[in-house]
Design goal:
The structure is a homotetramer of 201-residue chains.
Chain A lengths: L10 H15 L7 H8 L3 H8 L2 H24 L5 H18 L3 H9 L15 H13 L8 H17 L1 H7 L4 H9 L1 H9 L5
Chain D binds a DNA duplex (21 and 21 nucleotides) through helix 3.
Chain lengths: 201, 201, 201, 201
DNA sequence: AATGAATGAGGCTTCATTCAT
DNA sequence: TATGAATGAAGCCTCATTCAT
């Protein structure tokens, strides 16, 4: 327990932080308990002590990450802020989250096909219908281009998340270095916002 | 070796077809050799006989898939067809490929982080610079909106691929059934093309 | 796979034989898979190959032993032989079985309290009621002392099995060597038969 | 340490009482320290604090039980009471002890085979030879049937202990419920005494 | 006396791979 | 080409024990 980056006072939370990093940031979804323990600077069996099993640690980290993301997004789309502001916040959150944990969504997708459905039924109320209606109203008002509101959302999500996700592949495909690709990514927000609110009106 | 869907005369190719299906279509990236062998209706050790190791089979299926995709895309972007036609072909290919093998990109991403970089350097000539230049020319001509050409490409790729990739998650997030979500997906091409070639000019 | 005492042609059966010996004859109920594999001269994982798990090997050996014993006893008590002969056969079987596998019954008793009930419901027909009736008839005829038939059976079982079971303890308690105790055991059949058929009539 | 049935003032003795119950009465010979601690309502590590190790607790409970049993039996067989009375006391003790702790003998037997011989050499003087001689005298006097005195003793022990030990198995074998079997057991003393002192003389 | 945290020993299982036909 | 048998590597988990208050 030497090289801890977080406080020594809460080993349990420290282990989860390290696991999150390994799973979601580094994308090593199959990291062994030994690797996680080593990265956390603790004895391997301590994972069992705190979480009973690798799967339990897994699920806990996973569920908490999902819950965190859901809360951030849902609170943004259901806020009382004006539409324009809401959308910018949503883009910021998406870019922020995907940058911090680029492999989390991928992780979910792969896990779903390994075992039974891991996605817990969402218990909180669903803010999407009213938000989609709000989008529709903006379209009717001519603020944003008319289309299926769900397509509008999917497009924004896609443009925010996918290029970051694909960094290793697309830099390769385009024959540029990962660093050069990252440079391109850093400037994308303006481009995305230009889609969210077209300027030519 | 009873219920083979491909010809008995080429067991090796049959195994690869089955593996492709399991890895890229079903998304079971961690499928064991036993599972692949069972699905192919062959003895487990035959995989070693033909491919030396699980990793070798893996790599082979993987490399061929990458090569296939690259060829289709590069031939589309470097064809002599007019730009408008080229772009539509590109979108068609992307939608087509991702629909057939929705997990292939995910597969690549996750694998990259498990071992050393698996991406072999592309040996064929690089058509992207000239295609990006072509895009730039169209922008200058006012046919398509002005932006970084690479953003234009990334956006199109994103909108084509990502929503299909995320089907299990986003249907869940939006609280609609997977079938309802699929319905939305089926109609997306027009929406994407509206981004590729904005109609309001 | 060198020092096999049974035939090399059937490793699976050989492993079971060794397991039976360790469990039921030597009484090492907690023997590890490694110990069993070592005793059988095979690789530890071969146990998994043949039996899937330690528990499965366990259960198989166990069930077969029980079935074997049950068959021997039930066929003896339901035979057409005269009563006197039947009883002698029964005593012979009990002495024989307990001598070969002295820890089997103990094994059962201890296991019952570890997990769910391991005793499978007996599927074959129940010969005991008619045998108990036959005993009753003999008692009425004065051939054997009158008592509850079930007590008669329990006493015989007890006298056959228990002293052999308790060898390590009773030799100790009585302050004689295990060998001396064994000597006493060897002569017990006549004494037991004297209970089964008292001579003083 | 809440729901203790024994006094709070002596946790050490309390733990032993609980352990005795689990080992000898419930027959859970492989109970973990956690299970014992839970049953005793104390922290797991307290077992180590008081007894150094699980084995030490084990041995202590074991030795004390053996000593207790030995004392009761030896005091009965070496008392000054008349032979008839002595024998009845012996049977009472055996039935009483085995009823309270039916798994103690089994416990001993199984443990002997796990490690080195756990049976400590008895330090008290050996009353058995004189008792066996007393039995011999009774036989000569015709009070009891003539046989090897040691067989007489073994038979009595067997008839007292074994049927109780085997309750789970024999009720199953005879296809009666455990409760029905228990009914039979309750009436056995008279039957045993009829063996100890045959009435037909 | 008591406890939460941490650790090491030891066991079981899965899996890809190799061996021997 | 195909297969059953056998093996080693690597992982996970349980448990008793020890450490530090």
């Amino acid at each position: 327990m030497s090289n801890m980056s977080t406080l020594n006072t809460n080993t349990e939370e420290h282990i989860k932080t390290v696991a999150r990093q390994i799973f979601f940031a580094e994308g090593r979804l199959n990291a062994t308990t030994q690797e996680i323990a080593d990265a956390a600077g603790v004895n391997r069996t301590l994972l069992n002590y705190y979480f009973r099993s690798r799967d339990a640690l897994f699920d806990q980290v996973f569920d908490e990450a999902m819950q965190h993301l859901r809360h951030r997004i849902e609170s943004s789309i259901s806020s009382a802020a004006p539409f324009r502001e809401k959308m910018e916040t949503l883009v910021d959150i998406l870019l922020d989250e995907i940058t911090q944990y680029p492999y989390r969504e991928i992780f979910i997708i792969t896990q779903i096909n390994q075992k039974e459905n891991k996605l817990k039924p969402p218990t909180d109320k669903n803010n999407w219908p009213s938000f989609l209606a709000e989008i529709k109203k903006e379209m009717d008002a001519g603020t944003i281009p008319t289309m299926e509101p769900i397509d509008y959302i999917l497009n924004i999500y896609s443009m925010c998340i996918f290029p970051i996700l694909m960094k290793p592949i697309y830099s390769h495909m385009l024959r540029i270095t990962v660093d050069e690709y990252q440079e391109k990514l850093n400037d994308r927000k303006a481009n995305i916002m230009a889609y969210v609110f077209p300027q030519n009106k």
